[in-house]
Design goal:
The complex is a heterodimer of chains A (about 325) and B (about 325). In chain A, strand 2, helix 2 and strand 3 form a beta-alpha-beta unit. Chain A folds into 2 domains: about 180 residues, Rossmann fold, CATH 3.40.50.970; about 130 residues, Rossmann fold. Chain A is α/β, with parallel strands linked by helices and about 325 residues long. In chain B, strands 1-2-3-7-6 form a 5-stranded parallel sheet, with helices on both faces. Chain B has a two-stranded antiparallel ribbon with strand order 4-5. Chain B has 10 helices and 7 strands. With about 325 residues, chain B is α/β, with parallel strands linked by helices. Classes of the chains: A alpha/beta (about 325), B alpha/beta (about 325). Chains A and B meet through helix 3, helix 4 and helix 5 of A and helix 5 and helix 6 of B.
Amino acid sequence: MTTREISYRDAIREALFEEMRRDPDVFMIGEDIARFGGPMKVTEGLLAEFGDRRVVDTPIAEAGFVGIGVGAALTGLRPVIEVMFNDFILLAMDQIINQAAKARYMFGGKAKVPMVIRPHAGAGRGMAAQHSQCLHMLFVQIPGLIVVAPSTPSDAKGLMKSAIRSDDPVIFFENKLLYSTKGPVPDGDYTVPLGVADVKRPGRDVVIISTSRMTAFALGAAQVLAKEGIEAEVIDPRTLKPLDMETILRSVRRIKRVVIVDEGSRTGGFTSEIAARIMDEAFDSLDAPIQRVAAEDAPIPYCRTLEAEAIPQERDIVAAVKRLL
Amino acid sequence: MVNSTTGLTPTQLLEMFRQMLLIRHFEQEAADLFHRNLVHGAVHSYIGEEAIAVGACSALQREDYITSTHRGHGHCLAKGGDPNRMMAEILGRATGYCKGKGGSMHIADLDLGILGANGIVGGGIGIATGAAFTSRYRNEGRVAVCFFGDGAMHQGIFHECADMAALWKLPVVYLCEYNGFAEFTHSASTFPITELSARAAPYGFPAFTVDGNDVLAVYRAASDAVQRARQGGGPTLLIGVTYRIEGHFIGDPLTYRTKEEVVPWRQQDPLVRFRTVLQDQGLLPDAVCREIEAEVTKRIQEAIAFAMASPEPDLRELTSDVYTTAHQG
């Protein structure tokens, strides 16, 4: 299989182009996505190819255009909705949680809500408390939603294509600091299945389970540790809900030491959930307490030094591994 | 003979009367089932507001969409919903519209364009506007009628959707049922204005206030709005002024209003008024009226019998229908 080195941004962009060409029911809607090409330039060029019927700029009205997306999906279209910073998705929570996530169940299995919502998450750009959160856990809580958070260009493209083809509502968390990162992406039409984790690096001494941008940090930490003779296995769940526990448990049972890394808050966070599931299903396999590395329980601060301190860094992962060995 | 102001035939007029009566009986029986402790959840009665659902849905085609509210039985019946499956849903049975998993507040029939009752005040507004978006996207000519109570006029989603529906000229009719109450509070005390139709002009589309207890007035206003929407003219706001004869839900102690204030509204009962209109025009001889009443009574009794004879859903239903495909984890 031949591959090309492209950015995370271009990988998602390619997925949008390919799926819009493939299915006339797919359309894009959101703020600044058409004429401006998207605040993160992910939708650049779509308007020129597909026109303003299928690439729709909206007023700044998140509840309204997400709600319109729900209605469009219920009546047969496949909206892909950009909400920009994931902090802004909070304005549309009723539409997502009370309407989109529940329509199928509460209507007795007749409805389909094939929509994708694209927020971007993450700190590191000095955008402070209302533009830097990682809010995926709010959605992992909700039955009926699928939650995706890819860490590489290849996964981002393949998962976006699966998300658009899915008949269930998908919250697709991009990460603002990953957009310009590059990686190999296969040529041609391919998908990455929803709900399947990926072992990003095989190892034998410790399992690091990491999400989104934290996977890049975990792989960096693994390189540092390798120089000291410690071989870390790195697993990226890629889809946070439904969660591929089988892949995680297989490694946990073999390696017996676990570090979980997530950029969301520590309390009630994604690290808590994975730790609990491991305790439920593989407590006897553990040789040491699970180490959790997550964001401090504080809003993301502005100052560069404080901001870096607020979220996990490579050195925090290295330190967590060393506490286990 | 066609009615001079509505263009409706006698057959259509009698069908509207039959539908209003069907809703009235359905709601009376649903309340009775509630009082007999056979309903697990809440029942929000549409009694007194029947003219709005029937007037508006009579202006629609089968392919058109509606969204409804927590007070939704009337909208569903008026759009052609099956009383059997509705009653079964209210009683939480497997044969109900939602397999007993939704209850009164979530009845939907997507095949009839009924995009669901909704437990959230204003919850149908985004959905209706989105359905209208689909219609325009596919150039289908379908119209969405969005029923909501006056309480929902305060919700941000109304204002956001009105904004975009006007911007894109979406084929949607926003039909506000001004029934006097937002849950347990007199609506008038919640509005800084008295004429709710003023809330469309800022978004650049027309609004009309109609007597919501006059089914033909509702029909005329809805027909105009639906035609305008179908022809690409964009949204319309209709305010149907009516009165919530029952409480917020069946069993509501009604401590927030006097019995006296209900009296004049009982005299404006939309069913009585429409019956009088039909009788004055010689369209509803007593024998025909009795026949319709007997037929409607029988239909609702059938629905109750169907529901009572139906099983509860299998326990496996608890976790089915969460997703379209089975996922592990």
